[in-house]
Amino acid sequence: MQNPSGGQKDTNPPIVLKTTPKHGATNTSPGIIELEFDEFVKLKNVQNELLISPPLNTTPDITLKGKKLSITLYDELKAQNTYTFNFGKGIADFHEGNLLDNYSLVFSTGDELDSLFIKGSLNVCEKENSAESIVVGIYEKNSLVRDSTIYLQKPDYFCLLDDEKNFEINHIRHGTFELCAFEDVNANYQYDGVSEKIAFYKELIKIGDTADFDLWLFKEEAELKRLDVDVKENGRIHFAFNKTIDTAFAYSSQDLIKKIEMDSLFIWPTSYPKDSFLVYTNVNGHIDSLSVQLDSLKKHNIKLTANEKRLKSDDWLTIYSNAPIVKIDPSKIKILSDSVSLDYKMEIEAFKMAFNIPVSEGQTYQVKIEKGAVLSTYENQNDSTNLSFYSKKQSALADLKINLSTSTEDYFVELLKDAKVLERIEPSKNLRFNELLPGSYQIRITLDTNKDGAWSAGNYLKDVQPEKVFYYTEEINLRENWELEIDWAL
To answer: In what order do the strands lie in the sheet with 431-436?
Structure first.
């Protein structure tokens, strides 16, 4: 005898049979809100899932007994306001876990329900193109003054983003509001400054306007701070800062060589000073000075590396040094292809050397650098180094052409793969990325309104919008021996 199968699995969410106050009620200001269901339910992180707009100052208590959910309020509700209690994904049936998704209870403390709304979308300026824990809120204001309101007060009305970075705030009364969005990392419904991302609309909005509102999310620039100074045994002085460095200058009675890497400034005196000496720095416009004493030096081999080993037809073969290059002996450097030594033209910069060779498709190139070919400060030199480079056959590569329609020429275009910038091109009638490996790519365009060659953040209190960043929304897949042409209108 077989056991009964138990019937068809229940896939229906619980049903709300009754609410107190009633959904859509007016002239009510309850201290306790109750929901009764047609079956036993369970709560799933409901304290975080429940969104109350306008927000309350004191977190309510939520209790569940049988088929009844009770919410005890400790704040006096505002007069003449419509309140929305949205439970998100916080309620499910007890046995199967079927969600009562985004159920909302709406009521008004005034004579009528406010029915106005605003909607729009959020664009992300950051490289990661991510927007998590974003609160979109409006603040009632009579004049557009960028003040401390968003730092100290919760929004008058708010919502969260959907998965497509769109937003809609409902049940708003007539009025004039400031529209902002911010990354609410600590869930306090307030903007906490440079630790969180922010977006704000350029002007006040009147509720009832039918237009969609576009916001641009960015992270404000933190004030530059020097975190540490470290003097290495090879004579390198490392200044570490709390943010990426754009420009840096260094001055001293000693001749100095400098290098910028992300949030670090590296300095090498060209000769060994026995006594302490002053170094003056100007980093992102921040002027500082420091007395430095070099310890006794130890010999260190220079490390030579290649960041990119695949060569395009017009590429120079480039090798990087981790220490300043003072002198090179070309007789100790050979470039071979099929065991044949190639002639080359060489250009030298402080931390790299580039070789111009005839690049043929489908070839491998060996660079043999003998010991002592590259000399650095304090007579440090390289150990013997062998590096390999290669080129692909043209039939194994792809090209990407962009037909861009835009009203400005102040922009730059970047090609990305896995969030990493591979190439960058400036405004041109012929926007092309050539000799690309097959695969999936992204394109990003930054409107460089201040023409400084880089993306610039905004500033809320100074009412400065960030430079806009656009991502091509469709998937870009390149195949071998193929040219993809796309049309893009900004």
So the answer is: 431-436, 398-405, 482-489
Strand ranges across the sheet with 16-20? 16-20, 32-37, 68-72, 61-65
Three-state secondary-structure class, residue 427: coil
Phi, psi of 375 (to 5 degrees): -110, 145
DSSP string, 387-420: EEEE---GGG-EEEEEEEE-S-S-EEEEEEETTE
Query: Cα-flanking dihedrals φ and ψ of residue 313, to 5°?
Result: -60, -30
Contact 332, 370 (CB under 8 A): yes
Q: What percent of the chain has pLDDT over 70?
A: 97
What is the C-alpha separation between 415 and 448, in angstroms, rounded?
16
Give dist(CA 456, CA 448) in Å, integer.
8
**What SS3 class is residue 11?**
coil
Bridge partner residues of 158 (DSSP): 137
Q: Name the pTM for this structure.
A: 0.81
Q: What is the largest CA-CA distance in the chain?
A: 98
Residues near 42 by beta carbon (within 8 Å), at least 6 away in sequence: 64, 91, 92, 93, 94, 97
The confidence score (pLDDT) of residue 132 equals: 82
Task: For residue range 383-404, list pLDDT tens digits in order.
Answer: 999 999 999 999 999 999 999 9
